[in-house]
Design brief:
It is a single chain. This protein has 428 residues and is an alpha+beta fold. It has eleven helices and 15 strands. Helix 7 packs antiparallel against helix 8 and helix 8 packs parallel to helix 11. Bound molecules: adenosine-5'-diphosphate. Adenosine-5'-diphosphate binds next to helix 10 and helix 11.
Length: 428
C-alpha cells in the first residue's frame, strides 16, 4: 500500500511501529519517495526512516500527565474553536466526558449573555494577536450550573508560524471569588458602620457640649443663691444648716469643674490647632505658676532648651493635667517629688516625661485611664472628674504626638508625651 501511494503521488509519509532485526520495536517516521528515470518510468523507491521512539515516549508521558490532571481543565481547540482534546480535570470541572464534547464548539461553556456578546471569538482573537489571553468570568457546566473561572488561552503554531489551534487551561476559582466577594461585602459593611459611629460620636460630642454649656447658667444660679443665703441669713444658721450649705457649695463647685472639663474636652476636638514652635521650659514654668504647685516644686532634668511644634494653649492644658495628677496621686504623708525630663526621642520627636513618686498604676489600668470618666479611686480619696487624661491624650494626638505611661505600683508613675521637635537652631 505504501509503495502504491508513493508511486501514484510521488511521496508517502507515515509514523508507526517498526521491527528491528532482533525483534524489538521502535517508533519510526518513514518517508518513501518514488524514483523515476528520464522517461518517467518508475525504477525504485528511496526510503528514509527516523527512530522517534524517545520523542514518542516523551509525548505520551506528557499526554498522560495532562490527561491525569484533575484540578485544571486542560484541553485544546482547533483554530475555529472546536474542542479537539479533553482531560480529566476538564471533565471534573465542566461535567462533559471527552466523547460528549470533542468536536463541539467551545462557546458551549459560556453563559448565553457572554456567547451572544461575542466573548468566545474575542478570546481567541486576543490570544491570536497578543500570543496570550488571560481572564476571569462566569462559565457554565453541562448541568447548567455556573462557576467562576480563571482562564488562560495560548495559540498553537505550525512550523510556518500559522495558528493551528489553541490550548486552554481553566480553573474553577468559585471559592476564592466567593471569599473575595464576602470580604468586600464585609469591608463595605464595616465602612458603613464606621461612618455611622463617627456620626454618632460627633452628635454625642455636640450634645454633651451643648448640655455642658446649658448647665452653666443654673449652676451659676445655685452658687449665687448659696452665697446670698450665707450673706443674708448666715448669722441665723445653726451648725447643721451651715453644713448643708457647705455641701451645696462643694457639690456645685465639683459640678462646675466637671462642666468645665467636658467643655474643654469637646472644644479640643472642634477647634483648629494652629501649631508653632513652643518652648518647653517656659510652658512648664507658666503651668507651675498658674496652678498652686509653684515652679520651685518641679525638678527639671535633661535638655530643657528643646523646642517642640505644638499648639501652645493645648500644650499648657496637657502639662497642667499631668503635673496636677503627679502631685495629687500620692500616699498620705509622703512629700511629692515631681521630675520633668526632656530628651530627644526617635523619628524627630521630643519626649517630655512627668515622673512622680506617687501611688503608681497597675498594668491592667494603664490604657483605660486615658478614656473619659475612667477613674481608679473614690472621690473622698482623690477628687477629680476623670477627664484630665482624656484631654491629654486627645490633645497630644491632635498635635501629631503620642502619649503613654510607665509605672511601678506603689513607687510612682512616669507619664510621657512625644511631640514633633522644632527644627534646631531656628528662632521661634
Ligand atoms: P482625674 O485626675 O480627674 O481623676 P484623670 O483623667 O486625670 O482624671 O486620671 C484618670 C485616673 O488615672 C485617675 O483617677 C487615677 O486613678 C489615674 N492617674 C492619673 N494620673 C496618675 C498618677 N500620676 N499616679 C497614679 N494614678 C494616676
Amino acid at each position: 500500500m505504501e509503495l502504491r501511494v508513493a508511486s501514484e503521488v510521488g511521496r508517502f509519509e507515515d509514523e508507526g511501529w517498526r521491527v528491528r532485526k532482533d525483534g524489538s520495536r521502535f517508533w519510526a517516521n518513514v518517508v518513501i519517495t518514488a524514483i523515476r528515470n528520464k522517461e518517467g518510468r518508475l525504477v525504485g523507491f528511496g526510503k528514509i526512516t527516523r527512530d522517534l521512539t524517545e520523542r514518542r515516549i516523551a509525548e505520551q508521558r506528557y499526554r498522560m500527565l495532562v490527561e491525569g490532571v484533575k484540578d485544571y481543565a486542560i484541553y485544546s481547540l482547533d483554530k475555529d474553536g472546536t474542542v479537539t482534546s479533553w482531560n480529566a480535570g476538564a471533565q471534573r470541572i465542566k461535567g462533559y466526558t471527552a466523547d460528549e464534547i470533542v468536536g463541539k464548539h467551545f462557546s458551549n461553556f459560556y453563559t448565553a449573555e457572554d456567547a451572544e456578546a461575542g466573548m468566545p471569538a474575542r478570546v481567541l482573537d486576543t490570544a491570536r494577536k497578543e500570543g496570550h489571553f488571560e481572564g476571569e468570568g462566569w462559565r457554565v457546566r453541562k448541568d447548567g450550573s455556573r462557576f467562576w473561572s480563571s482562564v488562560v488561552v495560548t495559540p498553537i503554531h505550525d512550523d510556518e508560524g500559522n495558528v493551528t489551534g489553541f490550548s486552554k487551561v481553566t480553573r474553577d476559582i468559585t471559592d476564592r471569588k466567593k471569599l473575595m466577594d464576602d470580604l468586600q461585602q464585609h469591608a463595605h459593611e464595616l465602612e458603613v458602620q464606621m461612618a455611622e459611629r463617627e456620626r454618632t460620636n460627633a452628635e454625642l460630642e455636640a450634645f454633651s457640649y451643648s448640655v455642658s454649656h446649658d448647665l452653666r447658667a443654673p449652676l451659676r444660679a445655685i452658687e449665687g443663691f448659696a452665697s446670698a443665703l450665707e450673706e443674708d441669713y448666715g448669722p441665723q444658721f445653726d451648725e447643721t444648716a451651715k453644713d448643708y450649705l457647705n455641701q451645696i457649695r462643694s457639690a456645685s463647685i465639683r459640678m462646675s469643674r466637671l462642666v468645665q472639663d467636658l467643655l474643654a474636652y469637646g472644644r479640643l476636638s472642634r477647634i483648629e490647632l494652629v501649631m508653632r514652635q513652643v518652648d518647653i521650659q517656659a510652658t512648664l514654668e507658666s503651668v507651675a505658676r498658674e496652678s498652686n504647685v509653684g515652679a520651685s516644686a518641679l525638678i527639671f532634668e535633661g535638655d530643657m532648651y528643646r523646642k517642640v511644634i505644638a499648639h501652645e494653649p493645648t500644650l499648657i492644658q496637657v502639662f497642667a493635667n499631668l503635673i496636677s495628677n503627679a502631685f495629687k496621686f500620692q500616699k498620705r504623708g509622703t512629700k511629692a517629688i515631681v521630675v520633668v525630663r526632656t530628651e530627644k526621642a526617635e523619628e524627630g520627636l521630643v519626649r517630655i516625661s512627668v515622673i512622680d513618686n506617687g501611688i503608681g498604676i497597675a498594668p491592667q489600668h494603664r490604657e483605660k485611664i486615658f478614656k473619659v470618666f475612667e477613674r481608679l479611686h473614690g472621690m473622698d480619696e482623690f477628687p477629680g472628674t476623670g477627664i484630665g487624661l482624656a484631654i491629654v491624650k486627645r490633645g497630644v494626638e491632635r498635635m501629631g504626638g503620642r502619649v503613654g505611661v510607665d509605672s511601678v505600683p506603689g513607687h510612682g508613675s512616669t507619664f510621657w508625651v512625644e511631640l514633633p521637635a522644632a527644627p534646631e537652631g531656628q528662632a521661634s
